[in-house]
Design a protein that fits this description.
- The complex is a heterodimer.
- Helices cover 8% and strands 47% of the residues of chain A.
- Chain A is mainly beta.
- Chain A has one domain: SH3 Domains (SH3 type barrels), CATH 2.30.30.40.
- In chain A, the strands form two sheets. A six-stranded mixed beta sheet of chain A has the order 8-1-2-11-10-9, with no helix packed on it. Chain A has a five-stranded mixed beta sheet with strand order 3-6-7-5-4.
- By secondary structure, chain B is α+β, with helices and mostly antiparallel strands.
- Chain B contains 22 helices and 22 strands.
- In chain B, a hairpin with a 2-residue loop joins strand 16 and strand 17.
- In chain B, helix 7 runs antiparallel to helix 9 and helix 15 runs parallel beside helix 16.
- The two termini of chain B are 60 Å apart.
- The chains are: A mainly beta, B alpha+beta.
- Chains A and B meet through strand 4, strand 5 and strand 7 of A and strand 21 and strand 22 of B.
Chain lengths: 156, 685
Amino acid sequence: MSEGFYIQNRQFVVFKLGTEEYGVDIQNVTTIEKMLPITRVPKAPHYIKGVINLRGDIIPVIDIKEKLGLGTFEETDETRIIILQLKDIPFGVIVDEVDEVLQLREETIENVSNFTNDLSLDYISGVGKVDDRIVSLLNFKKLIDIDETGSEKDEN
Amino acid sequence: MDMSQYLEIFIDESKEHLQLLNQSLLSLEQNPQDRAVLDEIFRVAHTLKGMSGTMGFSKMTKLTHDMENVLHAIRNGELKINPDLLDLLFKCLDALENYTENVVNTGSEGDNDYAGLIDSLNAVLDKKAQGSQKAPSLKIEKEEKTDKPVYKTANFKLSEFEQNAVKKAYSMGMNVFEITVVFNESCLLKSARAFIIFQALERHGEIIKSVPKVEDIEDEKFDFEFTVVCIAKEEASTFSKEINQISEVKEVIIKPLDPEKLNESQLEENEDLSGVSNLQSDKKDGEGVREGNKSKVMSHKTKTGKTVRVDIDRLDVLMNLVSELIIIKTRLEGIEDIDASKNYAEAVEYLERITTSLHDSVMKVRMVPVELVFNRFPRMIRDISRELGKDIVLTMTGTETELDRTVIDEIGEPLIHLIRNSADHGIEPKEVRERLGKSPSGHINLKAYQVGNNVVIEVEDDGQGIDLEKVKQKAVERGFLKKDMVNNLSQKEAIDLLFKPSFTTSDKITDLSGRGVGLDVVKTKIEQLGGAVEVETEKGVGSKFIIRLPLTLAIIQALLVVIGDEKYAIPLNSTKEIIKITPEQIKMIQNQEVILLRNMVVPIVRLNKILEVPGDHDEKKNMTVVIVKKGEKTSGFLVDSLIGQREVVIKSLGKLLSGIKYIAGATILGDGNVALILDVNSLAV
């Protein structure tokens, strides 16, 4: 993802965790699934809820709320698993609700590191503003420590 | 032009030929007079030369060419085969193997030109020449045809654009050549050849036109000749030298551009336009191809080496089964009333049969004969026996036994360890053998055969066997054992000591073995593959290493168990038996829960605790224990209930969960849920 290659607009899948809105770059999203039975994996990191069978593939699923310190998910009709793929590593993320696909202009995305040095904000790569809404854009590479398993440095 | 598509073929064929060369050289060593073998070697060297030439691997070509010269001299009786000469040829083989390895890894032959080898090859020839005074006719015979055929590609016209380029070149004092290249009629990869020639030419000048067009040459849409117009500073001789180095070129005609072609023209304005665009697209193509080629080569790094050659018959069977699968699908779709129809049961039964056969055939596609691993051993034994000064005969049986490709890839290293072990530690020196009344040459027997769902590979030698007393003594010295325990040690336990990390009985460390990194590596590797190693040994008579390997790694038989609300699979090959116990039978020894099973103490592992299964676990009156074996030891896994035996497909948990303790993988159950496969080795006490 080289800089400058992007056209001004980027698309994000916007989802809710509790009441807050978050976004993930649509290029990383493979599919969005309804809740599936999750098999717990013993000794896995606490935020990895387990694995699911996605049409024959075994995919680990992350409770993103727990990872972000927002409690844990409660299953409702709106609960979805967003299947992402980063650096060839597929994984699912449990979210409370998937809202829409949002187009954000590059200049409306603000870099958060400018106004805080709180560590938990490390997981957020930027904040998109649309009208009155604020969408936190998640940095999944940081979130799942993909640098440890993957090879390259994060470039967002 | 993209060479990478040929690269794969080249690699496969080179490997085959090198293997053949290896075998032939070995048999030549046994029967130096065997003319047929010599011819075979010559043929192989020649083919390799041709192939590497085609691919533009000039160093490989040079080496094989010089080998060929030496072999030619042997064939003519001008040279006698002696051990030194054979050693030299074996070294050449190693060098060629290195080249091929480089090609596999990087897509190019590498920088090593093995000048020393080539010098010694030539030295051998020189000696011969001095001896017989007859000058060796080293130069490649070339057909010198006097009758000039008419080259149809030489008739072309230059577009205005091209003419301008030529005029400009002339004004700058550059040369413009018209180069016609004619290939041998036997030339197989014409476009690849042409690509090499283009590359060679572009190193010295710029190609402004080619007849036929570059695209057509790429697609092999030309006979055996093509003509290019090239602008360059260099003289014609540079080009002729360059092109003549490329093999399978029959003839090169280089002449200054016919001035007539410059003046002829203005009539063809319409064509000019297309000519210009052609030229540009040609150029673009050229660049694109070069880059494309590079990136292909890069991606090649990871791609090669993981292929399986499949018998077309096996694919046909697969094809058939898949079509039957489609038929049954249609049939099932046609059944509307599931309950009433007896057709339904029939169809399901049919489906079951097809899936079983499908599974079998797909497994067979992945199977390759152990020969692939075995065939490097004769050479190894030859080298070892020369090095150690021992006479060792290697016999191999059951080389056609088949194993899964993934297993084959991993099994080579442990086998090398075992064979070296046998040769170094096992087989005694000749004098000792004679004194003991054994045959002077030692025997190593490599045997592969299938037993049920396992393949067994045995490495047997008739050497001195393993001195278990010495093993025990060493173990005490190295602190693996307490002195007073030595006498209680069973033979099995003593042998187990051999597989302890950094254990060696050898007093001196040789180049081959004795560093003590051997057997534990063998054991770990084979256990990783889901197999097991056993040793049988008798002092003074010999020893036998027995390796048991599963046929495939992808599908296993497993025992499904329930713990709390969760289901887990335990690989059946590590389960021994299932027993029922009452809570009173569990005793405590040194803070470890154990049970007595037929007078054996078996430690108990409470899976619900170790796997942190949520929920309460009341002590039930009847408890189910799955007895598993880890090597020679047993443990009892306490589970809540059993579901039964299933054939499960092993799937990985993925990178994110790699290295998770206690879990070896996952599988998908009939109801679509995921069950985890337990890693017995890490769970057992």
